[in-house]
Amino acid sequence: MEDCCSNVNEIRTESDGICPLCKNKGKKVQLITLKSLLKPSVLESLNAKENHYFCSTKDCEVVYFDTSNKRYHVSDIKVAVYQKDGSASTPICYCFDWTKEKIKQYVETGITSHPVEHIRENIKENRCGCEVNNPQGSCCLGNVTKFINQLT
Questions:
Q1: What is the average pLDDT score of the chain?
Q2: Distance of alpha carbon 82 from alpha carbon 88, whole angstroms
Q3: CATH number 1.10.8.60 given to 12-76
Q4: Which tens digits make up the pLDDT trace of 85-141?
Q5: What are the backbone dihedrals phi and psi of residue 53, each rounded to the nearest 5 degrees, phi first?
Q6: Between 20 and 30 A from 30 (CA), which of 101, 134, 137, 139?
Q7: CB 140 within 8 A of CB 122
Q8: In the chain, how many H helices and how many E strands?
């Protein structure tokens, strides 16, 4: 039976993945990431036949862009984007709610479980859903580790 939501054979593949606003290289993301994280009013304008990219540049308002340079901004996303939001309550790990504040608390007091170990345990049990929860569309462990290293 054919999946009614899939047009995989029609997806365009040409693009260099350069953000049309900041001109930095973006990271290719799966369509499911955008479908999960774009606000409904914006989702209606999504061109599913294009490749999509994530822009991680802090000062750039673009979160996603496609091969036709259509842009999706911070205001178009359902969640705060770690790479672009300085708030302490912003998640770094979207699946298991490790916020900047919670990780900082761990580093300062050691009272909570170790964030990286906690996340790895859940990954091992196949509980993560990075492709639908994390705006970058991939695992957060690199971001979590980098954040911890910045604090220590």
A1: 90
A2: 10
A3: no
A4: 999 999 999 999 999 999 999 999 987 679 999 999 999 999 999 999 999 999 999
A5: -135, 150
A6: 101
A7: no
A8: 6, 6
